Amino acid sequence: MMRFLQFSEPGFAEAFRTISERGETTPAGILQTVEGILADVRERGDAALCEYTERFDRLKLEAAALEVSKAEIEQALAAVDQCTLATLQLAAERIATFHRRQKEETWMTDDEPDIRLGQMVIPLDRVGIYVPGGKAAYPSSVLMNAVPAKVAGVGEIIMVVPMPDGVVNPYVLAAAHIAGVDRIFKIGGAQAVAALAYGTATIPKVDKITGPGNIYVATAKRLVFGTVDIDMIAGPSEILVINDGSGDPAHIAADLLSQAEHDELAASILITTDEAFGRQVADELEKQLAALSRAAIARQSIDNYGAIIVARDLFEAAEFSNRIAPEHLELAVAEPFELLPQIRHAGAVFLGHNTPEAAGDYLAGPNHTLPTGGTARFFSPLGTEDFVKKSSLISFSKQGLARLGKSIIEIAELEGLEAHAKSVAIRLDN
């Protein structure tokens, strides 16, 4: 049953800490395990990769068979009905359209007649996309990671996805085909992250790794950061709904459950200014939960990390939302665009009673790879900017260096860097 909390309660901070800190600790032994896997794959390459794939995924493969073949992709496409393929294509097109608006272009200034400055935007050569394949299959994760990379102009997209017992999910492979993924490998876990970060004889080394995974994958991404870039460390999923007593309790209950069914650590929180409405949501949630196919997962999530918080007003609700910076924020209020200016920190904001969080997960267009665990205070959703790098462009004419040279020399001398100063002075003297 959803617990009810009030900001004014003496024990509110402690009660909510259980929810907010649920994903901050790494269970004992995981760090050492992941460090060992990374070192092993780095040293032994394909041999280690094949051993871990057999151990963890019960899939015995030679190195040459780790890559998904064209025949397997064709079989997957044939197994997916045309209606589903059309839906995945529609999602890919909408994601691409949205992300094209994010693209940055190379630019140069002509503000000064004797100095030109600019920025060169260059797509990454090769990126690796991790797609989960454990408790569920996620073709949407394929699209949300691969399509922005493609729009950004990435040279090669490598996808890894675990296939326990050799079971190939046709929807994941179909999504990869639609998104333009170049190569796919049947590997997962920390060993897949290691292969992407360090490269093996079979798996090419990438420049960046994106995509969610379990605690082993997240830990591995954290450890290889610096050798390669990563998108972010994804923690347990979360949704916060702000409500003013308007709308249908059944709709809000369904939205809360849409996150609770993800995994046992997911958090579903409602902040409402109307306690009676909150009680209706709680009752409706129990009715809907009983009929869910993933009821056991959702039950544990709701019981441990679900909450309905009663606020004095929407200002108090928005203030608290900004403090916790939720991954998904629904403004389920009568006038959502009036409340929006009070929102500073959220991964994605869903405005109005007709905008369920699931719309953003799959088909709206914005990316569903979002900052979790309060990191929306400083992280942004995955986008095309994650798949490019930038170089500064600087061009001085002789006149430009003459105009600013003495000032450059002065700063160099302030720092005691004689050679820096002389590299300018020698040009001014000539």
Overview of the molecule:
This protein is of the alpha/beta class and 430 residues long. It folds into three domains: 3-23 and 235-365, Nitrogenase molybdenum iron protein domain (Rossmann fold, 3-Layer(aba) Sandwich), CATH 3.40.50; 30-230, 3-Layer(aba) Sandwich (Rossmann fold), CATH 3.40.50.1980; 397-429, no CATH class. Helices cover 46% and strands 16% of the residues. The chain contains 17 helices and 14 strands. The chain has helices at 12-20, 30-44, 46-57, 70-79, 82-100, 139-152, 170-179, 189-198, 215-224, 249-260, 275-289, 295-305, 314-324, 336-339, 357-362, 398-414, 418-429, and strands at 3-6, 107-108, 115-123, 126-130, 156-160, 183-185, 208-210, 229-230, 238-243, 267-272, 306-310, 328-332, 348-351, 388-396. Strands 1-11-10-9-12-13 form a six-stranded parallel beta sheet, sandwiched between helices. Helix 10 packs across helix 11 (275-289). The protein is globular. 40% of the residues are buried.
Topology:
Blueprint: E1 3-6, H1 12-20, H2 30-44, H3 46-57, H4 70-79, H5 82-100, E2 107-108, E3 115-123, E4 126-130, H6 139-152, E5 156-160, H7 170-179, E6 183-185, H8 189-198, E7 208-210, H9 215-224, E8 229-230, E9 238-243, H10 249-260, E10 267-272, H11 275-289, H12 295-305, E11 306-310, H13 314-324, E12 328-332, H14 336-339, E13 348-351, H15 357-362, E14 388-396, H16 398-414, H17 418-429
Parallel strand pairs: 1-11, 4-5, 4-7, 5-6, 7-8, 9-10, 9-12, 10-11, 12-13
Antiparallel strand pairs: 2-3, 3-14
Helix pairs in contact: 2-3, 2-8, 2-9, 3-8, 4-7, 5-6, 5-7, 6-7, 8-9, 10-11, 16-17
